[in-house]
Please model this.
Amino acid sequence: MSTLGRVVDALRRAAAAGDRVVLATVVRVIGSSYGGVGARMVVHADGTIVGLVSGGCLESDLVEHARAVHADGRARTVGYDTRADDDAVWGLGLGCNGEIEVLLEPLSAAEADGLGDLLAGALAGESPTVLATVVRVDDGAAGAPAVGAHALLGPGGVVRTTGAWGDDGALAAIAADRGAALDAGRRGLVRRHEGATVAFETIVPTVRLVVCGSGPDVLPVVRLAAELGWATTVVDHRPAAHGHAERFPGARVVACPEPRALGAAVALDPRTAAVVMSHHFGRDGGYLEALLAAGVSYVGVLGPRARTERLLAELAAQGVAPTPGARLYAPIGLDLGGDGPAAIALAVVAEVAAVVHGRGGGHLRDRGGALHEGAPGEPSASAERGRAGGRTGR
Model:
């Protein structure tokens, strides 16, 4: 489960138990930070936490601030200047080269349930959405929304809200900032609206991964995908057995006796990534045909280049060709080195992550500009150059 998925689960569990919690959310970053805008953690009344807002350096201090929020029920923001290399500012001496603002909002059980549903809807969506959160309100601002009010913004406007939004015009004005927030990506965006300070973040839907095959080398792929919180489906040509759930924890297993009918067994769309690794030439050809026709975002084929070229040649002889925009990666995986199923799985999952997040998969030290530059899910220039090279065949 992803970090945001764990936060959603914690909010829903708190709601079911009737517990109050404090939600800590990074709403503004200047310079560098560990998780970027939108990093979250749930703080329970006993001080236990779910999620992370940093690499572990801010959490203990935030728990102390959360105790005060639990006590008085008032939302507040906490600022950290991690650019300091000593203890002069607030005693932690991190020197992480960033300025971070964190919103701490108290949530009743009902509020936790509503916000959990809103975030879950964003993760399950078909395209990136923008979450607008009111983080500060000027004293005496008439008609302004309340601190902690949230609005989820989709392509068609406001999808869902929580909290008090004041005058009717507030939401319309905030929805107009969706495009700028998408452009900002993980850097986030902060705007002033009618006496209120509003933080915007982009939420990218959960990656959907389809693995065609159920051999032993599928296991590490599924494990890594589960750690990343991806919605993973394992496709087997045999009927799904009771032991599949134990063998592939964190994944759904479906039967697909006819590979060319893959689209009838699992949802295939432009947000789907698929890995073909059944080790059966005929079945792999059927899976490949179905995936290329569906135009999924990523199709990776395990095996040597010559094998994939044979598969493509046979499909071409049957009049099957990739649809425009199909992204075929074979040999599969990033060039990481190493041997064995675990190393291959790491290379495969890393490549899928790079493609779906629009990155080129190179060294971060060679990346110009901010690490969180650009909108999530939008192809980077380096990623586009990689696809333009026409890779067709590990």
User: Anything to note?
Assistant: The mean pLDDT is 85.
